[in-house]
Amino acid sequence: MPASKVAVVVESFNETEHSSVERLAKALGMAERATREYGNAKVVLADSGRSADVSDLLAERFPGVERITSDVYDYDAAKRMAASGAGAEVVVFLDGDCEPVGDDWLPSLIRPIVSGKAVGAAGFTMYEGGWLRRVLSVMDFGFLVPRRERPVACYASNNSAFRADALACTPTVEGEMRCRCFSHAQEFARRGTPVYLAPDALAYHEAVPVVRERIVRGWQLVGAARVDPHLREARWLRFGVLAAPLYWAQNVALDTVRAINGGRDFGLGPFSRVAAVPVMASLRTIDLVGIVIALRGRPLPRY
After folding, report:
1. How far apart are CA 210 and CA 219, in angstroms?
2. How sure is the predictor about 172, in pLDDT bands with cuts at 50, 70 and 90?
3. What are 92-142's pLDDT values in tens digits?
4. Which pTM value belongs to this model?
5. Given a cut of 50, is residue 242 above it in pLDDT?
6. Could you give the CA distance from residue 176 to residue 182 in angstroms, rounded to a whole number?
7. Contact, 68 vs 47, CB < 8 A?
8. What residues have CB less than 8 Å from 206, skipping those under 6 apart?
9. How far is the first Cα of the chain from the last one, in angstroms, to the nearest whole number?
10. By CB neighbour count within 10 A (0-12 exposed, 13-18 middle, 19+ buried), where does 116 fall?
11. CA 86, CA 80: separation in Å to the nearest integer?
């Protein structure tokens, strides 16, 4: 596949939420380096924030980056517009708060696509930082274990790649969720073209405020059920706020299995995996706040 037909799309949405222009600059710099080493693929900025600082950043330090703006302040919509306007056969998504690891990140990520095995690929993402951040990685990115090439039920939208024609045929669904990657992956699977894990394409995600992120994640557990009625959890919606313990318990159970069986992939040793279980259950109580907000029909909290 000619390298000129690959576009790395970096988003600026996170800069308006919890990240910074400097972190975005780091992501853009690493994306440019990856495309140069791969063979002059291009970098595109999906910009939904319309920040003057971001405009200055591109003009002063990244004049070669193509900028595609969206009319709405929406994470998924901005990336979808950039992908459709990138003019590439393969679109790679790297969020502005993420840092790819290793010189072979880009070829590793698109390998399942280039080989013809899949139309979409999911890189392996984890939070940067110490023990607690590794535990949080299990909670938020545990769907990526075991870390081996295989079909996955969900992908991390901050580190992923797709054939552009597959994105056009199977776009992300509309909805009030900030990111609809889970329902998107499920739709690919239902079409018989599941997203494959690219285990060697590692990216570190910037550490985010714990309480805020947990409330948002809790809300998204319910939001995912609203977006995709095929999910088992969608049946719980009829119980209203009484369903909150069901969402909490299901995810505590998933956390436990993922920590014990896959915690090593996030850098947790045997003792650390066991110690992580009660910590994750406690952190999930913060998720309950977002779960209840969502079950009461309130919108996603904005911070």
Report:
1. 14
2. confident
3. 999 999 999 999 999 999 999 999 999 999 999 999 999 999 999 999 999
4. 0.93
5. yes
6. 14
7. yes
8. 14, 18, 19, 23, 97, 98, 99, 127, 128
9. 42
10. exposed
11. 10
As a whole number of angstroms, the distance between CA 69 and CA 49 comes to 8
DSSP state of 45: E
User: Tokens at residue 14, please?
Assistant: 């996170």
CA distance 118 to 194: 7
Burial 178-189 (b: 16+ CB within 10 A, else e): bbbbbbbbbbbe
Rounded-to-integer distance, Cα 95 and Cα 28, Å: 9
Kindly report, residue by residue over 256-295, the tens digit of the pLDDT: 999 999 999 999 999 999 999 999 999 999 999 999 999 9
In order of start, what are the domains of the chain with their CATH numbers?
Answer: 3-205 (3.90.550.10), 210-295 (no CATH)
Q: For residue 274, what are its two tokens? A: 């066991």
